[in-house]
Fold this sequence. Notes:
By secondary structure, this protein is α/β, with parallel strands linked by helices. The chain has helices spanning 9-17, 33-50, 67-77, 91-101, 113-123, 156-161, 197-211, 229-242, 254-263, 273-283, and strands at residues 22-26, 29-32, 57-61, 81-84, 105-109, 127-130, 177-182, 192-196, 219-222, 245-248, 268-269.
Amino acid sequence: MTATLSLTSVLRESALRHPDKVGVVDGDNRVTYAELWQRSLRYAAALRELCPGPRPTVALLAPNTVEFPTTYYGALAAGCVVVPVHLLFTAPEMAHVLRDSGADLLVCHHALAAVGAAASAEAGVPLVTVGGAPSGGDAGIPADGAADRSTPVPSLDQLADTTTPLPVAETTAPDDPAVVLYTSGTTGEPKGAVLTHLNLVMNATISAFDANEVRHADVVLGCLPLFHTFGQTVSMNACFRAGGTLVLLARFHPDTAIDLMLREDVDVFHGVPTMYVALLAAASR
């Protein structure tokens, strides 16, 4: 008998147990677990049409908005390997990640459209956008990063809206690759660390129930970048594993973070030392 395991179980089980619980808060957008899982399955169906081959690799370039977990779990549900891309990389550095990982597709948030388009063109990787268009509309993204040439780029949201969602996630084995996380490359070119479904399910489970005792009632501030292992495992996956609420902050600023913590009754904060120092300074003003 072949063993099966998928990181998507982290989200799927909370959607089954707590369908009406708010799983993600993104500005004024409050998304329940049932809505998040169903949207992920719609993304999964669209990604299967875009990448029909076995175990395709999908790169994800997105800030801490609801589109990150939706695309992340949607790609996993489609049986893809997810490669989160560092938001502060330059276009050539992103292109290296796309080539090195063998990415079949780059899903790029509209907020990062210019650098994403330049990176995808340099690496020769197809591009789709996700998330709302920037203020003023979106007349097209330069196919090669240049300002004088633009071509229509498919929208994952639009494709998902016209696609029947997958009924269930694709079957994966415990040792199948799930996510490839790239190092910052401060001492050389970024290198990818391959994490399996078992790796990440156990990371989320241990973080939630052994290391931190995350509770179903917890409200977690998701201000650490989700493309990084700390934010991805401890803030997002562990929160979903316990059925908590993840309040997303796309860019950390201490004043904004404090206001958001007060407004949403946040009771869990994950950060690095510089964040704590900035919060203390902001609170003392």
